[in-house]
Structures are given as C-alpha cells and as structure tokens.
C-alpha cells in the first residue's frame, strides 16, 4: 500500500492503521455522528466495525479513505466511494469527525487536502457530497472546500424516523485546478 501523510494547518491525513480502531470505536459510537451519515455507517459503532473498516482500507493498493489525525490520535476519517457505470469518473465524498473536534476548522482543512489528494491520484473528474438538511455544519464544510450546491432533493432521505431533504454538492476537477492556480 502507498504510504500517505498530508499535513494541513489543523491536522494530518494519513493511512488508516490498526491502532486507530480503539479511537474510532470510541469516537464513532455516538448518535450525533450516526444521525448525519448514511445507514451503512453502523450505530452502535463497535471495535469490530472499526477493525473491519480499517482492514478493508489497508488492503487497497491506493488508499481511498484516510484517518484524520490530531496530536497523534485518529479523530475521524475522510474518503471517497467511487461510482460505477456511466458515473465511473465520479465518486461520493464523505467524512466524519469525533464530536469533541467539531467547530474548530479541522474538517474544512481535511476536506481541501483530501480533494487535492483525490484529484491528483485517481482518474476522477467529479466529487459529490450529500448532506441531510439538518446538518448545516457539513454543508459549510463542503462549501468552504469549493463544492457547489447543485440541488436540494426534497424528501429524498428517510433518516431517524423522518423524511428530510438532501442537499447535493459537487466539485469538478477542472474547477478545483483553477482554484489552485
């Protein structure tokens, strides 16, 4: 596996390691995190969930998901899920961060660094992120990382016992490269 270490002003993005499992199992086992993610992110989040996720990622030749490290500890994760078929040059962009670290600008810096890593290492031309209408913090992260709101899909999501709108954001590689020059 390729070794990745990307330093930002607030955190480091790096390969997931088995030693991250305990931190992930503690921080991700939080209903305030799970409520903002798709249902395939389990809650309760156990040590075995963390181990399985980390091992799956460690088996890839090129990491698609990275740990967000702060002061030597993994406090979240950020990554992509490539799309297929006619969407094969796109990927879903997702992330989570332990609640004690919210509101400190960490995720915006991590998102920018991850976008740069992805567009330089994968044959993708588009990243997209979907946010539930009640998650204003995540909308702000994507906006600050250069993503643009493309649409609001009304009643597109059923989460926590209720229908809600999904805000769909996207960032094109060409637009990102222009922002970097």
From TrEMBL:
Return the protein name.
GNAT family N-acetyltransferase
Pfam families, alphabetically? Acetyltransf_3
Going by the UniProt record, its keywords in alphabetical order are: Transferase
State the organism named in the record. Answer: Phnomibacter ginsenosidimutans
Extract the GO molecular function terms from the UniProt entry: acyltransferase activity, transferring groups other than amino-acyl groups
Q: Which PROSITE patterns match?
A: GNAT
Specify the N-acetyltransferase domain's residue ranges: 11-178
Gene3D superfamilies assigned? 3.40.630.30
